[in-house]
Amino acid sequence: MSDDLRKSAITDEIARSVWSQKGSKALPRTGTLSVFSEDSFATANDEMIGENLRDVEGSNSMTFDELESRDMKVILRGRLKAFERGQIKYRKPRHATCGCADEADFAAKLYCLRKAFKIIQDDDQKMHCLIQSGRTLIADLLRNDSKDPGAFYLAYDRMMQFLLNEENRPKMEMEMKLRKVEEINLWDVLFDFVVMDAFDDLKKPPSAIVALVTNSWFSKSMKESTLNNLIWSMIKAKRSRLQILDGFISHFYDISQIVTSSLTMGLLGGGTAEFEEICIYFKDNLFAFIADIYNTNKVRYTDARVLSEDVQKLLTERIEVMKVKLSNELVPPIPV
To answer: 0.85 exceeded by the pTM?
Structure first.
């Protein structure tokens, strides 16, 4: 086995083990979007029954241009002082999930990754490809569960129209501030706020959900119907607390209402064996990508542009392998 394949296999195994850890200390809840967060489930239930880092002089006031022109490894070392002063803000410490040595290591790398993701976001062509890839992946995931993705397409496209309209930027900034999301970028919003929070809650779902999904006496259609009703009630409860009724979070809930049932059945053991395998593969690749971008053996923390190139390359590779897997495993269409 080549070194690259061996490293990839190790990364994937770490991602799987981190996600499946039992009894791990729960991260603090800071305005999670997840449908299965404890607060929304309770409401719905009522209705339904690295190395030592050293200070670098002037590191706390470094501008984006300076970041690009200086050695990022030096900047990584300089982030510790800013971390100790509480100047690198984030919602949750993700060092364990990201494979970092400690919280300071996570914060230092996060600082640099935010700059790298900004470069990716500023490239319209790359963002268009990412948006289309996300649309394709989730649609194929639904098709593998014998679901028509039509409603998902409509909800996803409406959310993208909202996000791409610069006039909505102040509204989204206000929403994210209320949820303690520090910056609007792919890491803070997509990976941390949306993806990781959702899978965090699927690691420890409400016992009633587990009992429903794993009950061998219920048919798949009965499980799905009951689960969809419960999800609808949970989202209704969350919507009732929104301060901005037509913002990003509202659009995200539209998508959640369509996708959550399939993902829950697939990851908790209520779907077919084939679909469960696909959902686990999907989840493992997301977490492996997250581990990769915090791994100095996978990406180069030399300057922001080089880091952005490595992050983009890893993201593209993961997306392509997931596309192939999901499209190749598509079940035959249901006869009309």
So the answer is: no
Closest CA to 205 of 48, 44, 34, 47: 34
pLDDT one digit per residue (tens) for the chain, 336 residues:
555 555 555 455 544 544 444 444 445 555 666 666 555 544 444 444 333 333 333 333 344 444 444 556 666 666 666 676 677 899 999 999 999 999 989 998 999 999 999 999 999 999 999 999 999 999 999 999 999 999 999 999 999 999 999 999 999 999 999 999 999 999 999 999 999 999 988 888 888 888 888 888 888 889 999 999 999 999 999 999 999 999 999 999 999 999 999 999 999 988 889 999 999 999 999 999 999 999 999 999 888 999 999 999 999 999 999 999 998 877 555 554
